[in-house]
Write a structure and sequence with these properties.
Layout lengths: L28 H22 L14 H4 L2 H7 L6 E5 L5 H14 L7 E5 L2 H15 L7 E4 H11 L1 H4 L6 E3 L1 H14 L12 H13 L4 H8 L7 H17 L2 E3 H14 L1 H10 L2 E4 L7 H11 L4 E6 L14 H4 L1 H4 L4 E5 L7 H12 L20 E5 L2 H17 L7 E5 L6 H9 L4 E4 L8 H14 L4 H8 L7 H13 L15 H14 L6 H19 L3 H15 L5 H10 L28 E5 H4 L4 E6 L16 H15 L2 E10 L2 E2 L4 E2 L4 H4 L7 E2 L2
Parallel strand pairs: 1-7, 1-8, 2-3, 2-6, 4-5, 6-7, 9-14, 9-17, 10-12, 10-13, 11-12, 13-14
Antiparallel strand pairs: 15-16
Length: 702
């Protein structure tokens, strides 16, 4: 999109800019109808939340809930029975509310084992259970808590007999899923076609998105990948064969965990009854991030008792690219007409001056529940906006301010630069490197994605499930002399032998001695008497010579395997270790390096200064910093040019800007170069989200 604007644009023009300067986004009749429907529901919520009765607890508790919670939090915490929708604004103490509600349940003699807490990270669930236990001075580990995927993994294995599935299924992540799809694609000979066929990662994204959105592949391609229209039929064939491949190899990917659980709850009455009886009280965190299938799972489990509380903030729904359905939280009152609705609007993160700005950002949303965040910190310090001639000048300003903040005793790790797309930080990274300022980039190669880590995990997966063809394909091709065809033949033989490992048919081959070493390593590490750390130690001894031949920095990479060994010491069950590793891999602390180093940041000298954070907005959700910089605020960059043709996508971009702005506790800098050009576009206008806001809510620096 090209913006026609004065080439001599300067900061003074922000005083005159208005939304009239921007091309409007077309509103289709279908979108208009949907928006009106959602607005009607949102308006009805206002009526439900307008009356806020004073809550007086009828008995004494160990915890003084009334003095430790604000009125909104108290209302949510003390409602035990029936469906409850909690709309918790950014920084409003959502986690605190869930923690105190868990404690309140237990204080009201509800057995912890009857409570199900669904979250989007295992870390979040663990933190909530730990905090509830500290409050009550007792263990809360009997509470069923975890991610949707970890819960599905647990419940499917537990009831595998009822469901007619093998309990030792392997769980594969997105990268392994793409590899499996690639194997299927090659077996179908699609790579022989004259056309440039979509790569494995693109195929995996399309197939996964179709399942997450509960749509046909043709619909997904038409909506999100229109340039691949000619491949729809081929992709559908690959998806079908991929499903057969997983079933034959006793493998489930992330999407299968959700689909199998949902389908089993629907079709198997005995299974559904057992799960409902085991989970009569349910809490679901970050409900705005659930997809269609996850919502169905929650509704099916809650179907009998309806003691369901969902917590979330529609204004922070930014993951539609993962299949998250923004409408789930908006339509909750339609699914549960008698639900209680609680708004929590008191903010404990930001000063009021910043909240005035962020409130005005989201006030302009055409879809969503209206909320007005307020803070007891009445400081009226406003966000600061400044425009620069070019990207270099913008980067220099940001780094100057970072150093200024550091001189004022604000630690570097309390400062973040948040951007819409990774390349928006390129000039800033260059400037930081020039001045030797330590920084980390959230994103990049994760610990779990490093080749040597995935290799060791593949060996372990074979020990658990000898039919895991994806893992076999990976490790067989590490053996010198074995390529794709031979690997495929060996895997077929293993499957024919029902998982028995016997390589004697290849005794005449040059690669047999190495194959024999592999067999011996798997046999030793597969011993039932070997603990998981001992299994890793055996595999490390076998794998180190292989890694030495593959990578010149093998000695550094070995440190990651040592770290894997350390993580394994907390586990007694191999299936649990591998599942946790796949579903909720080690946190960002294993990837926080300025450059893609291999060793863990934990190895860095503790005396070194903790680094500045650079991150995409998507990776920053749930985090907070003293000061936040949001660069490249040009229309076409934020909001993204790709969102300009669809009102719903544009609204998600607004929510993205809102999430970025609400990460700041005390300082917020909004910057932009006067232009950014790409091969087909030239962007000069400030973000329309700024143009919509009253100028009194931010200050323009000259």
């Amino acid at each position: 999109m090209k913006n026609d604007f004065d080439d001599d644009y300067s900061t003074e023009s922000m005083d005159n800019i208005s939304i009239d300067n921007y091309f409007p986004v077309e509103l289709t009749s279908e979108a208009d109808k949907k928006i009106k429907r959602l607005k009607k529901i949102a308006d009805s919520i206002e009526k439900k939340t307008s009356k806020k009765p004073t809550i007086k607890l009828s008995k004494k508790y160990r915890i003084d809930y009334q003095s430790e919670l604000n009125p909104g939090q108290l209302s949510a915490v003390t409602t035990i029975d029936g469906p409850v929708l909690v709309i918790a604004g950014a920084g409003s103490g959502k986690t605190r509310t869930i923690v105190y509600r868990l404690a309140y349940f237990i204080e009201n003699n509800i057995p912890p084992s009857q409570i199900l807490l669904l979250t989007f990270t295992r870390k979040a669930a663990g933190e909530m259970l730990t905090r509830a236990g500290i409050l009550l001075n007792k263990e809360c580990q009997q509470i069923q808590g975890g991610t949707f995927h970890s819960f599905a993994n647990y419940i499917l294995r537990k009831h595998s007999r009822i469901l007619g599935i093998l309990p030792n299924f392997s769980v594969i992540d997105a990268a392994d899923s793409a590899d499996a799809i690639d194997l299927v694609r090659h077996s179908l000979k699609f790579e022989k076609k004259s056309r440039a066929f979509p790569r494995k990662s693109r195929l995996q994204t399309i197939i996964s998105k179709a399942k997450n959105c509960n749509l046909k592949i043709s619909k997904i391609v038409d909506k999100y990948f229109s340039g691949l229209g000619e491949f729809i039929e081929d992709i559908e064939i690959i998806a079908g064969e991929y499903a057969k491949y997983k079933k034959a190899n006793n493998v489930l990917d992330f999407d299968d965990l959700m689909d199998v659980l949902r389908d089993s709850l629907k079709s198997n009455a005995l299974f559904r009854e057992k799960v409902q009886e085991a989970c009569p009280y349910i809490m679901c965190d970050e409900f705005q991030d659930t997809n269609v299938v996850q919502k169905e799972i929650v509704d099916l489990i809650a179907g009998k008792y309806k003691n369901l509380m969902v917590v979330g903030d529609d204004a922070q729904s930014i993951y539609s690219f993962r299949g998250a359905n923004f409408e789930n939280i908006l339509l909750f009152p339609e699914t549960y007409p008698d639900c209680k609705v609680v708004k929590i609007e008191q903010n404990y993160r930001s000063s009021q001056g910043l909240l005035n700005f962020t409130n005005s950002v989201i006030d302009n949303a055409v879809i969503g529940y209206k909320k007005k965040l307020f803070s007891e910190d009445t400081s009226q310090v406003k966000p600061l906006f400044r425009q620069f001639y070019d990207q270099e000048s913008e980067a220099e300003f940001i780094v100057d301010k970072v150093l200024e903040l550091r001189e004022n005793n604000i630690p570097l790790n309390e400062i973040a630069v948040l951007y819409r797309a990774t390349y928006h930080g390129n000039y800033i990274q260059a400037e930081l490197l020039k001045r030797n300022i330590p920084y980390v980039v959230y994103g990049g190669i994760r610990f779990v994605e490093r080749r040597h880590v995935k290799d060791i995990i593949s060996y372990l997966r074979i020990i658990l499930n000898p039919l895991d063809a994806v893992a076999w394909n990976r490790i067989l091709k590490l053996v010198p002399g074995i390529g794709s065809v031979t690997a495929r033949n060996i895997i077929y033989q293993i499957k024919s032998n029902k998982g028995k490992i016997d390589f004697n048919d290849y005794s005449s081959k040059k690669f047999f001695p190495e194959l024999h070493k592999l067999s011996k390593a798997l046999s030793l590490s597969g011993s039932k008497n070997a603990s998981i750390p001992e299994k890793i130690e055996i595999l490390k001894k076998y794998y180190t010579p292989i890694l030495r031949n593959l990578e010149s920095d093998y000695d550094i990479r070995i440190l990651d395997i040592d770290l894997l060994h350390e993580l394994a010491t907390k586990y007694n069950d191999l299936a649990q270790f591998l599942t946790d590793f796949a579903l909720d891999p080690p946190s960002n602390r294993f990837q926080q390096q300025t450059r893609p180093l291999i060793a863990s940041i934990d190895k860095i000298d503790e005396s070194e200064e903790k680094p500045l954070i650079l991150s995409t907005v998507h990776s920053a959700k749930g985090l907070e910093w003293h000061t936040v910089f949001i660069p490249h605020l040009l229309d076409g960059l934020l909001p993204s040019e790709k969102s300009m043709e669809n009102i719903e996508e544009l609204e998600e971009e607004r929510r993205l800007f809102y999430v970025a702005s609400t990460r700041a506790k005390r300082g917020l800098y909004l910057t932009m170069p006067s232009y950014v050009s790409s091969w087909d576009s030239f962007f000069t206008l400030p973000s329309r989200f700024l143009a919509e806001i009253e100028k009194t809510n931010y200050e323009v620096l000259k």
